[in-house]
Amino acid sequence: MTPPRALWEKMMALLNFRKTGAARPAGASLEPFLEGYSIEVMPRTASKIEDFRALLPEGTRVYIAHIEGTPIEEMVDTAKRLADAGYPVMPHFPARIIKDKAVLADWISRYQGEAGIDQALLLAGGVARPHGDFHSSMQLLETGLFDKAGFKRLHVAGHPEGNRDIDPDGSHAQVNDALTWKQDFSTRTDAQMALVTQFAFDADPIIAWCDRLRDQGITLPVHIGIAGPAKLQTLIKFAIACGVGPSVKVLQKRAMDVSKLLMPYEPTEVLEKLAAHKATNPDFQIDQVHFFPLGGIKATAEWARDNGGASGLPAAARAVG
């Protein structure tokens, strides 16, 4: 039997879900927290969007994920299309699928010459065995090619819940050493850097990680990775594939409730907790939110808009690209 409407609405509020398409008032601290959010796309998902300007605020930074096997021509074409639409574009440079310095130079030249790109996300990449000379983002930085080409902004990866590919023993030792190196690189060069993280589903490990960064002397701004709205089964699949850590238990716990399997997951709870922490701790290291649209670009963009993320990049951020 269907419960009375008032009881049903209370149940939905407790479950942190809303009916698809229903408007939800933005929390007092969520709108400023979403200001300047970024989003990640792939060439094949981007090709399904007729007009990004109908979905994303002006100035939204768009990352283009480079999955193994994607031709560089498709990456550059996608970058050009987004840049021509007025968006700052940040393509991925996964070290382990770049054969050598000549290939890296070619990619940089293509992005710059054909799409006017001057920023990049440098990361190791998800493949187990390097295709050539590189296996880490630090090696890409050390080539000096990005500086020579005049790239203004270079982001690198962060892992709030660790990374088993880097630290198989489950510790954070090598990840922490890499962060110290990247912090030093940012201080001895003119590169504008930030840590863009893997997505997580629980605010507490993220807050604890940011505290550890501060204690370690890592002051790079954090762009926190958050999964956009999606079916619970979809998120669990991606979380396992991407090696998401302890916070995947949040999804597994929800999966035990049949009623939650019927409703799409939304990142409201984790973001509101992070936003509240930021509001009471202004020095909290999270600077922006970065969305992984695992349930679709349109669904994520609409959720962000409905929750106050319609302002795009702040003027100061637009000035630096």
Automatic annotation (TrEMBL):
Keywords: Oxidoreductase. InterPro entries: FAD-linked_oxidoreductase-like. One of its GO terms (molecular function) is oxidoreductase activity. It comes from the Bacteria. The keyword Oxidoreductase applies. This is 5,10-methylenetetrahydrofolate reductase. Gene3D superfamilies: 3.20.20.220.
